[in-house]
Amino acid sequence: MELEFERDTIVSYDTVADLTVCQEETLESIVPDACPDILRIVDVYGQAILSGKQAKEGLAVVNGMVRASILYQPEGGGGARRMEVSVPFTCQAEAPGLTERGTVLASPRLRRAEARALNPRKVLLRVDLAVDLTACQPVERPVCLGVNNPEEHGVCQRQFQGEHYLLTSVEEKPFTFTDQVHLQTGSGETPILLASRAQPVCSECKLIGTKLIFKGVVELYLLLQEPGGTLATSHESLPFSQIIEVAGAGEEGDCQVQVEVAAFQCEPTPGDGRELEVTLELLAQAQVRSHRSVTILQDLYSTVCQMETDSETQELCALHEQSVRPQAVRELLETGEMVRSVVDGRLSLGQIRQSREGNELVLTADAWLSVLYLDENELVQCVQRSVPVTCRLNCPEGALCSCRCQCQGEVFAAPAAGGVEARFTLEFQCLTTQNRSIPAVSSARLGEPRCGREGERPSVVLRLASPGEGLWEIAKAYGTTMERILQANELEEDALPAGRMLLIPSTR
Description:
Membrane-bound Lytic Murein Transglycosylase D, Chain A, three-stranded antiparallel sheet, 21 strands
């Protein structure tokens, strides 16, 4: 006879892929007819754009584009010039268990871009990309809580009571905003905009009912050339705030919002060259995690009948640590020549590598520093350096750490003996969890009665508990209850006394 169970369903998302895809793209491009010939390439500024993403069967796909501004000195002298080039990219990663119902979260970054003049009218551009990719699959896991009316068939059951830290909601929202920026650098004539890049940063998010409210700024960095040829930079912070509808999380949930650039335009306003109109299409990608109390039926037996059970394993997740760990970095970039002044400093990030040293997890982020400066002859030069930045955290064996990294504030660079000294702070945003496998019952059936013929087994057994054997295991083996064993041995607690013979009354 099939037993009837009280059941529940755990609704959540499984993270079936969480990795960083690194790849290179190259493109040959012709200098536009309106631009002069190239004498020397100085630097390449770039912006990674997220165009689209798709969840397929076992595969996560991300599409985007790198908008690059190639800065060069033209033949015949004059100030710096720029050449705009767009490089499309597609990256994909295996995601076992992902279906078209899943969601792909993506964060593309330009690690490095460099250009080489093949001739005065032709350029080879190479871009080095890092795409943080997370694939989430919605799942519904049925779980047995216990037997309905256990007393009817003398059913004894053991239940697990605990917490499950689960990903309850994955949502995204595209939004657009336009702002005006007034250039404060220099005076008089209108400067030339050589390069621009936008970095969205979510600074605050919280849940109120079913609404996820998040705020942040878009850090806008501009490279300008004044009419006399002087290079200057400008930095603006453009605030934003939005609301995303989420369900099933509760106000105690932990939320994480990543905002990506989907389109970006920064152009002088007609009639006033010192006014820039900035238009941004952004995509907010949100993950909400929360604690849920769970009850799982781990084992059961009947004191009246034999029983057959079907078992399974339920995976529960526990939050170990959620933290933000800033790491201050100071680095000397050697130039081999005297640096008269620094024009601009910027930082891009690659993948985060993980290694273990005992109980510590070592996180290493590849930071790529680029500094634009004037040499002793007042020529614009660029120096670049890859800098590994490490962060350590206590992390038990078997735990999983998901980490994202971002630069907190600007990169400060100044002339120093032998080159340029750069200072910056990286924030390691760490989420460490640990999974636990819980044996569980999925179904059970009652069989023949335990007591067949009179006198088949003794009414009382005298024995020692085996190593690792508990009261539940003994009671199940003899078809009795834990309460009867405790009463027969005049015990008040479940802990069995070591080395003591136990009276085990059988159920007849």
